[in-house]
Design brief:
The chain is an alpha/beta fold and about 240 residues long. The protein has one domain: Spore Coat Polysaccharide Biosynthesis Protein SpsA, Chain A (Alpha-Beta Complex). The chain contains 8 helices and 7 strands. The protein has a 7-stranded mixed β-sheet, sandwiched between helices. Strand 2, helix 2 and strand 3 form a beta-alpha-beta unit. Helix 3 packs across helix 6.
Length: about 240
């Protein structure tokens, strides 16, 4: 099993994240994809015992995870878990996220469940709800947290994502789910604990994220309508 950690200038948290993964899954191999960091992220990750692949410049989480899936396919891993480098994801939930791969190709850790204290408000929350509705309809099963990066992938998903994984903003979350659904992969969810980032700053602000999520929702709805029309045309 491979734990993949995409990291961009996360020197303040990367060693602690690796240590917590080791604590909860000492059997896991850990890959840090150093996404063009200009700080000591790569050095600290290496010192903490992770395998580090350094990209020459910043390509974003989608590009970094594409690298991780290529690595996983090349090395023959049957399961990969994505964990953020900023301390948002709780490695205590690794078993829960991995366990779902017995019956699914992708398992998404959702922060929106009755026991969760995580809160997203304002326009970003409304955009996420619309996006959740669209993806759940495509999936024919609930996807309540489409932007969660805490997720696992089984053999079929690793094979798919090694060759088809979007690199644009939120491609690693929303875009990859849409691709997986269209290719017939099984997607499930499991409740997890998530925290707000410990250090650093997000790559995009809340308003920009909300606008992007709204645009992504419209694109998914349009694709769904086109698919529905094509199906009705095939029946006639």
């Amino acid at each position: 099993m491979l734990v993949a950690i995409p990291a961009w200038n996360e020197e303040g948290s990367i060693a602690g994240v690796i240590a917590k993964v080791r604590e909860h899954r000492p059997d896991a191999d850990i890959l840090v994809v150093n996404d063009g960091s200009t700080d000591e992220t790569a050095l600290l990750a290496t010192q903490a015992g992770a395998v580090v692949v350094s990209l020459p410049f910043n390509v974003g989480v989608g590009g970094a995870m594409r690298t991780a899936f290529l690595f996983a396919r090349r090395e023959g891993y049957q399961a990969l878990v994505q964990v953020d480098a900023d301390g948002q994801h709780d490695p205590a939930d690794l078993d829960r996220v991995l366990g779902g791969l017995d019956v699914a190709d992708v398992v998404v850790g959702t922060r929106f469940h009755p026991d969760s204290m995580y809160f997203v408000g304002g326009p970003r929350r409304w955009a996420m709800r619309l996006l959740s509705f669209s993806l759940s309809r495509m999936n024919k099963g609930a996807i309540t947290d489409p932007t969660s990066g805490f997720r696992s992938a089984g053999p079929r998903a690793i094979e798919l994502f090694a060759v088809d994984y979007p690199a644009e903003y939120l491609g690693d979350t929303v875009g990859s789910l849409a691709i997986a659904i269209r290719r017939g992969l099984v997607i499930h969810e499991t409740p997890v604990t998530m925290y707000f980032r410990q250090t650093g700053r997000p790559s995009k602000n809340a308003i920009w994220s909300a606008l992007y999520l709204g645009r992504a929702t419209l694109a998914l709805l349009a694709t769904g309508l086109q698919g529905g029309r094509k199906s009705r045309g095939d029946q006639s």
